Amino acid sequence: MTAAIPLSAPDVTEDEIAVVVAVLRTRQLSLGPELAAFESELAAYHGVEHAVAVSSGTAGLHLALQTLGIGAGDEVVVPSFTFVAVANTVLQVGATPVFAEIDPRTLNLDAAAVERAITPRTRALVVVHTFGVPARMDALLEVARRHDLRVIEDACEAIGAHFDGRRAGSFGDLAVLGFYPNKQMTTGEGGAVLGREAAYAARLRRLRNQGRDADADWLDHAEPGYNYRLSELACALGRAQLRRIDSMLALRREAAGRYDALLAAIPGLERPPRALPRSETSWFVYVVRLPEGVDRDGVRAALARQGIATGRYFAPIHQQPAWRGRGPAPHLPLTESIARRTLALPFFNRITSEEQQYVTEALRAALASAAR
Ligand SMILES: Cc1ncc(COP(=O)(O)O)c(C=O)c1O
């Protein structure tokens, strides 16, 4: 049966469709006014000087690492409990990702574990705000300062989250956003890099556009670059989505609150943290942890038979077939035990109470039969 309740769903209005169509009529489909406006609106929203829009979150991570001068011989501390692009892009600039353990509550890099992972070759951290829960930026920035490390925030899952009253994406040397359709706001495909330094912004723009300097001739390339541009259509959609991001985040917060109330009655089920000190979550996904020993694949299959899509969120990177055998296996018992039990439930702006009740009942039944 195909899933009747999807895991995620973009929220695109008729007005937003009209905005994209209007761009098509202008005939300027790349590197135009929508890009410039989207970038300045993203920067303003985050309280940073610069935003550089790119074709994906992955492209943003790649450019951020390269712009900070991370390369061959360098080590970069990253979580394993995250999306694979975080480690892939470190490899793609010729550096080595070093996996560090997470905090079991926030599921973000643990500052003490980061410190243990540091060697004389460590140059940077990629701090992911996992599932929209802000990382403990005070502790992580303190470790980075003491060891003279650059910090890239991966805020792909966390637009609008706050730590100590500041938005995720405003703490690092550079920060990356992602706008894939499962995200809180979307441009279809897309992403952005945020930062405070003009020199970084200029380098990011040059690398994104085949190594061309601003105002250079189309066939003059100052350095080898990429085509990581974001189209005018995507930027126009992004601007419209950003205008209502706070109301979209409020819908997601309400949906998370409803799941919380419904799922509280299921014994042994661990719900995501609702209130963390000094933090405000931007709800990306709603991920529960099943009781130890439950056959998660069996539960997923039972839910799928009821038309309910779920996700594993996350399968640790170091356990992926593509990553096994790359040096000694890291010791990440928390990452591994948490990742065995996680289950992402359907979660999107317009999910209804009835759909959430249906998911809850199906999960309750699946867990009851798994316990038999
Ligand atoms: C934490 C994290 N980093 C990076 C990415 C990559 O973003 P994209 O899919 O836009 O390349 C994603 C999302 O997919 C993500 O969740």
Question: Would you give an account of this structure?
Answer:
With 372 residues, the chain is an alpha/beta fold. It has two domains: 14-243, Type I PLP-dependent aspartate aminotransferase-like (Major domain) (Aspartate Aminotransferase, domain 2, 3-Layer(aba) Sandwich), CATH 3.40.640; 246-371, Aspartate Aminotransferase, domain 1 (Alpha-Beta Complex). The chain is 38% helix and 14% strand. It has helices at 14-26, 33-46, 57-67, 85-92, 111-117, 137-146, 198-208, 232-243, 245-263, 296-305, 333-341, 353-371; strands at residues 50-54, 75-79, 96-100, 122-128, 150-154, 162-163, 166-167, 174-178, 191-195, 279-280, 286-289, 342-345. Strand 4, helix 6 and strand 5 (150-154) form a beta-alpha-beta unit. The longest helix is centred in the last third of the chain and has 19 residues, at 245-263. The mean pLDDT is 96. Pyridoxal-5'-phosphate (PLP) binds at residues 56-58, 82-83, 85-86, 128, 154, 156-157, 178, 180, 191.
Total of helices? 12
Estimate percent helicity.
Answer: 25-40%
The CATH homologous superfamily of the largest domain: Type I PLP-dependent aspartate aminotransferase-like (Major domain)
Mean of all residue-level pLDDT scores: 96
Strand content: 5-15%
For the biggest sheet, the summary is: 7 strands, mixed
Distance between the termini: 25 Å
Per the principal axes of the C-alpha atoms, what is the gross shape? globular
Order of strands, main sheet, comes to 1-9-8-5-4-2-3
What Rg do the Cα atoms give? Answer: 21 Å
CATH level-1 class of the largest domain: Alpha Beta
Bound molecules: pyridoxal-5'-phosphate
As for the number of domains, it is 2
Structural class: alpha/beta
**CATH architecture descriptor name of the largest domain:** 3-Layer(aba) Sandwich
Count every beta strand, where a strand is a DSSP E run of 2 or more residues.
12
The residue ranges in which pLDDT falls below 50 over 5 or more consecutive positions are: none
CATH fold description of the largest domain: Aspartate Aminotransferase, domain 2
